[in-house]
Each structure stands twice: as structure tokens, then as C-alpha cells.
Design brief:
alpha/beta; homotetramer; 27% helix; 4-stranded mixed sheet; 7-stranded parallel sheet
Chain lengths: 255, 255, 255, 255
């Protein structure tokens, strides 16, 4: 019999935290012992997400008030920027799974270029394992800090990495036309995410400047053995969930 | 040949203003000479609503900077509360069509009870014409201030008023189960109006306390000749526009 | 340790069958040993529902070719009418859970009135257990034939039965205004279920003649101890799943 | 004062016909004198499309029973295949605007290759004017038979033709990733167009074999002065209307 793992979740009140809770609920080895949520600290989990009220979850607290003694693993569901400030304070015995963008890029300068500010925990960038589980299962098992891949980068690397590894597609002129549901933008309250603005339309956004672009290029470049530059156009589609990335490549002679 | 009417629109940058512009564009007698929009003052109309860029519309200004001399009619698309503060400053030669809730209720005390503050222009409440055009065409023609009915009240009064007039339905136990699209909530940016919160669900809201309830009861009571109390349950439906009100009544002996 | 139960599913290729498979997949005691699907007989389960391809499900067959020897329970996901023809041929040792409407009504004449043809297995109508699990758990455990309640009837009986039992609501003038997602209509290919016909609208249908009405009235009448007649108006809402029933009742003196 | 033009519409009961009626209603020179609709012949227009009941439209008839004497122009809203059989029987004095795909391709062999059967009116293919009105206004005015462009081809040619004319984009490696609403598939009743199949998803279809591909290539090739081959991937998006085509090109030296 496997002993359950004691788990904390930081930033449990957003969409990411809620979905994580739903998945962990059915996991035979997960024992959720702590939840934090800044603006919701002090509330019962059932008050934040009524549909999870039967899970016997702990009350939400602040990160500062957490007792880490018995916590073995932590999922960090904080927004990027907040994650890199919280993680340095976590004791060494805790395995960290970060769902933000903060530890995905290996290169400090690239991070600063795309996020417009220096990284607060740059020393750990190199040591973090990029956790695309289908491709990095072995490294994940030994990691102390795991950076979960972004949504778009997952949809692009899963099909492209094997093709690049086998030399079947050329490294130039890779075009990614990606379409995402609306929860990808999280639960932030802004005009562009209103129902009446999104419904019955589809639009491209962040052309040439979406922060998932360097993450995708980093992943493809590692396996290609040279710098890969892609053309990446994300679109917002009127649906809650899911991503479809239509990818255009040129085949090599071998293929 | 009819001379076009010179028209101003106050609060032209919300959904109400944009839809009004779209309708007036095809109207043979409407000549739009002024647009105001507080937060958008100084912008071209095309910057606010790109799809209307070919209409040759004037630049947005503030209400204070309007020159009323040549304006014959004004549509007031301000939120409730703001309307009753702007309208007293409009010169007498201008016909006012108010699309907010501010002049719909005849009774000052009822207004204060439902809107939690005294009315700023109560003297005009009695004089305003309740502009349900199918039923009040004659009065509208002579009015100086026309209060446009709310969306739910229109959907309920149009079918019920003729039945009450003819004595076909009883005055008691009228139940209105109303379903509205999301633009009914306007363009306000709040969590409950996010795509991911509205999509794939339907819910009742404001039960027993929706501000359209006294407006409906006022309209039905006038034609019934006695106080009519209804049961009113509005619902939010995942669609942009439209209202369906399912109304349950008991027939009279005559019917 | 509980021994898994060997289960067959008849009519596994519709929405009902697919959803049942999804639920059973996580059930610790369910062992799916046979699937049937008339028009899909001979296909792999993965060809019919690609997202279930990892479950190791058996190939689809015809009902006639089933070997019942080792089957302990069967879920019947056939359309109404087809169920009552298939069920008489199932051996006595098999517990039958019927998800169609065929065994929900107790009274043969009521069935014939609402379904416009005589019942083919009327003798079993009285013996079938009406399986609203929250209210009939004890009977379900001993039953050989369980009729699963309809979607609308479930949404109405769960809140109303306890109130009727405690005498808190009157038996007269119960109004049910129900709103359903589109999968409630199943996977049948007809004009009214096309995306462009359903999207961006809401409408009432089957007013006064929806076949779930007698089922609801039967359930409420049993607990009320007298005939209960309801007013039932179902609506189709542009969403995939879910039902919201807004129910209007008059309270008794006790309440 | 311009005299109104007497217009007939063939196949008026589909989505194309209904939308055409809605547009013509506000047209100052259109006088609709005849409507046909095979399966709906004999019905009032108001029975087919209740929202158009106030337009005073004529009853639907069959094509065969039309009296062409006073008809000056006809819109043909029949499906492809049916159009090319009906049009040869229309008298010469009538200007024909065909909204099907039947006269869009200039080359008989290309038609046969993509539609899997010989064209029934091939002689007229060369003479028909390809009616992309922004680019062919002059020819349209003199034409006797106008082939209206397809939806995808319009979305691609409008932006690309001017760029090709000015020599700003290369003729090779043009990639079109197109996203369409569901009414593009017409009102045909098939599984893939059901609400529950389309809603909450997005998918590519007809990759490399969509019949709009040769039409796009024909249009681009004419302006490029050589054969242009594109990569075209259409997608179905959960919305009623609209097309967004994201187009990837390589710039020429000049650009």
C-alpha cells in the first residue's frame, strides 16, 4: 500500500486551483492538507467553490501562516511573478510543482525580455525541470522544482518534438495557428473576457508577442539542436476549454 | 419631404448607445449631430466602435461641452442615477428620450425604496410619458420627456396588458419566469458576466428584488385598475440578446 | 474486497451509453463485459467514441448475439419502445437497469395515452422499481428491474417530494418552468437540434404534452396521497448539459 | 427616381434565401415578385420564416410554374448541382445572380475533378462573371450571369489579391488557416451539425479536399499571372456566422 502524500495548494481560488482540486480528488495517493488564497483567506473551500463542498477540504489560509512541517509537496497556482516570490520561502524538504510561467524559461535574459522585469529567483531557473510529463518523466521523478508547461506550448511540443527528434520536419518556417477556449485567460475580470465580447466571434491576439512563444521555441530548439524560430498566432474561440493548434511544417527529404 | 431631426446621444459608448446608433443609421429622418461619452470623450466614434466607422459620426465629447442650440432631440443612454442628474440641465426646446430606469416609476417613494436613494428630479416623474410605443403612441407624440420601458417589463406588458384590458385573466397569482441574454447586463466588467462564468449554465438571480418588478407591477396595475402583485424570477441564459418571458396566469370566467 | 460485477450495456453508441461508460470507468466494482449497438455492431468501441479508447472495452455486437451466462447486470440505453421489446428476452438472473422511459409509468393505460401505442411488456410495469436513488435506495437494492427516472422528473421530484411529505406545499397550482441543455434530446439528427437553430435562442416546447409530465405527476401523487396535476413548461437552452427547473408552489398554513 | 427591379428568388427556403430576403427588404430598388422552394411550394413565406411575415412576400411556388415575363433579375439560391440544371431554362432577358458554386470555376475539367461529375452547363462557365464585387464591379454591371464567390474564397481574395497585384507577397507557400461559423454549412440536417456536436469544440475538416480550394487558387492565379498553389485548412467554430482567415505569406524583396 502506498502512503498518501501530504499536499498543499497555493492560490487555490482561481480556475487553475479549482481544476487541480477536482483532479486530485480522485487521485489515490493525494492527501490535501492545506489551501491558501490571498483574497479568500479565512473562507471555507465550500464557500469559494460550492461544487467541491463534499471533499472535506481544509479552510483557506494565507501563505505566511502555513506550517510546512508535514507538507511533502506543494502545487503553486499563483500568477506568474507571484510564484517566484513565494517559492524561495518554501523549505527544502517540499517538492514544488509550479503551474505558473515563472520557471519555464531556462534563460534569465529571455525571461526579462518577455516579462519586462528581472527574475526574483533566477538561480533556480536552470535547476527547475520542465515538466512535460510525456517527454520528461524520468527527470520529473527526481526533481525538487517542476515547472509545468504552458497550455499552448504543450499543444505544440507534444506533436512536434517527436517529429523533430526523428528528423522528419525542417527547422525553418514552422507556423503554429493556435485556437484556445476562454478559461485559458484565467478568472481575471476584464472587458475582453466578458460573455458578450467573446460569444459569436473569433479573433487573433498577441501576434508576435505572446509569452508562450519563447517557451515553445526553447522546447523545440533543445530537441532540434539549434535555434528554432516559429510563427505563432493564438486565437480566442467561444468555448470554455480546450486548445487546437494547427501546425504547418515542411517535411525533410527523409520524410 | 420631412426635414431630418438633429439628434444628440448622451452616453454613446455603452452597448445601449451602440445599438441605438445602429438603428438610427437607417432611419430616414435622423441626423446625429452630437455624441457624448465620459470616459471616451475626445475619441472618434470609429475608435470606440470600429464597425460604425463609415457613418460619418461626430467625435465624442463631454455633456458639459455640448451646444444645445441646434439639437432638437436627445437620447439619454446613461446609467440610472446619472440620467436624472443630466436631464434637468437640458434646455426646454429639446425632446428627451431616456433609456435608463430613472423616469419609469411614477411614484417617488417607490423609486427610493427600490433604488436606495432619493430621486434627484422627482418633480418630473409624474410628467414623464412611459414610452411603451405599442400602447402609448399618442402620448409619446406630445411628450417632452419619454421614459423608455425596461427590457423585462416590455416582454411582460406587451402580452399581458391586452389580456387584462379585456378582463380575460385574473389579477392574482400572475407568475413571470423570464429568461434574458447577457447584454441585458450592459458592458459592465464583473466576474458574473465573464464568458467562462456564463457559458454552459443558466441561473436565476435577483429573486424578489429585481428592479424591473415594481415597473411591471406599475404597468399592470394601471390597466387592471387595482394593485397587481406579481411573482417575478429573472434568469440569465448563455446567449447575447433576447428575452423570453414565460407567463402563467389564471383565466377569468369570461375567458 | 468486493468482487466486480459483470455488466452489459445495450445501445452503447448513443449519448446515454457514452456517458454511462464514462461514469462506470471509475467505478471500482464495474466490469464491462459486453456492449451492443445496432447500427455500430462489429465496430471497436474506440471507433465509436475515440475518447474512451483506453478503457479496454469489448467490441460492439448485436443484442441477439449476446451470451448472457456470465452477465450479472445490464444497463439498457435503448430508445423507448425498443427497451420494452428487448427486456422480456433477458434471462432472470440478470438485474436490469433501464434508462429509457419504458418502465417509469405504473399504469398501462397512462402509458398508452402518452405514447400512442400499447405497452409490449405491461405485466412488468407494476413490478419495476422507480429508481430515484435518493428516495428509493432500499427498493432498488432488491429490484430485478429498475426504471431510471427521466431528467425533468428528477429535477422536479428531488426538491418537491420532501416538501410534499412534510405537508409544507399545497397540492394545487404547482407550476414547473424547466430549462434543459440540448443533449437531453439525445443524438438524433433533426432540424431543431442543429447548432444554428439552437444557438442564440431559447424556446418553450411540448407545452402540455411533454411525456415527462405524467411521470412527474405520478411521483408527486404517490407522496401527496391524491392526484396532483401540474403545469409543466420545458424550454430548450443553448448549452450542452444540465437542467434548471424553477418551481412555483403555494405554501400551506404550516409552512 | 429609379424604377424598382422585379426580382425572383429560386430556393428561397434555405439559410441563403432567408438572408438574401432580409438584405433585399431594405434595398430601395428591389421588388420581390416571385419565390420558389421545392419542398415548401404552396406555403406562405410567413410559414417558412415567421420573422419575415410583414414583408408582403409572395407565396412559394415551384420553378416550373414561374412566369418569367416580368422578371428582370433572379437570385439562384439552389444547392450546387441544382443551379446548373435550372439556369439553362431561364430566358435571356433575365439577369442571373447565382449564389451556388456552379459557375465559379472557369475550367470544366477542374469542376469535374472536384465535384465528381460533368458540368451540365459547361458552355456558360467561361462567360459567367466571377462576382467579387470589390474587385469586379465593372464586369458585374454588364454581366448576364454572375457567379457569387464562396465564403472562404471571399475572405482570402479580398486581402491577398491587392498584395499579389502590387508584388508584395511571394506566390509560394501561402498558407490559409480559415475558421468559419456553422451556418456556412447551410441548413442541412446531419450529425456533425448538431448543437451538441459543435458546441464547446473546434475542429479542422476537409483538409486538402475542400471545394473552395480550387476557387481560391483560380482567383489568386489570375492576378499572380501563374499557377498559385495554397495550403488551405478550414475549421468549424462554435458560432453562427462569420469567417476569420488567418493567412501566412512570405514577403517579396520589394515589401
Amino acid at each position: 500500500m502506498t502512503t498518501p502524500i501530504n499536499i498543499a495548494i497555493l492560490g487555490a481560488s482561481g480556475y487553475t486551483g479549482a481544476e487541480l482540486l477536482r483532479l486530485l480528488e480522485n487521485h489515490p495517493h493525494a492527501n490535501i492538507v492545506a489551501l491558501t488564497g490571498d483574497s479568500k483567506a479565512g473562507l471555507e473551500a465550500a464557500e469559494v467553490y460550492p461544487h467541491l463542498r463534499d471533499l472535506g477540504l481544509p479552510k483557506l489560509t494565507t501563505i505566511e501562516s502555513l506550517d510546512w512541517t508535514n507538507i511533502e509537496a506543494v502545487f503553486c497556482c499563483l500568477p506568474h511573478g507571484a510564484s517566484q516570490k513565494a517559492i524561495p520561502n518554501i523549505p527544502d524538504h517540499v517538492v514544488i510543482i509550479d503551474l505558473s510561467a515563472d520557471y519555464r524559461l531556462k534563460d534569465e535574459a529571455t525571461y526579462e525580455q518577455w516579462y519586462n522585469e528581472p527574475h526574483h529567483d533566477a538561480a533556480r531557473l536552470k535547476e527547475a525541470v520542465y515538466g512535460l510529463s510525456e517527454l520528461a518523466a524520468r527527470d520529473i521523478r527526481k526533481a525538487q522544482l517542476i515547472a509545468c508547461p504552458g497550455c499552448y506550448p504543450t499543444s505544440v511540443q507534444l506533436p512536434l518534438v517527436p517529429l523533430l527528434e526523428k528528423g522528419l520536419v525542417k527547422h525553418e518556417n514552422i507556423i503554429v495557428d493556435a485556437k484556445s477556449g476562454v478559461t485559458g485567460a484565467g478568472r481575471s475580470v476584464k472587458l475582453g473576457n466578458l460573455y458578450s465580447e467573446v460569444n459569436e466571434g473569433i479573433g487573433a491576439y498577441g501576434i508576435g508577442k505572446h509569452r508562450h512563444m519563447p517557451e515553445i521555441e526553447q522546447g523545440l530548439s533543445i530537441v532540434a539542436g539549434e535555434d528554432v524560430v516559429i510563427s505563432f498566432t493564438p486565437h480566442l474561440v467561444p468555448m470554455n476549454r480546450g486548445i487546437l493548434s494547427t501546425i504547418y511544417v515542411n517535411l525533410t527529404e527523409e520524410a
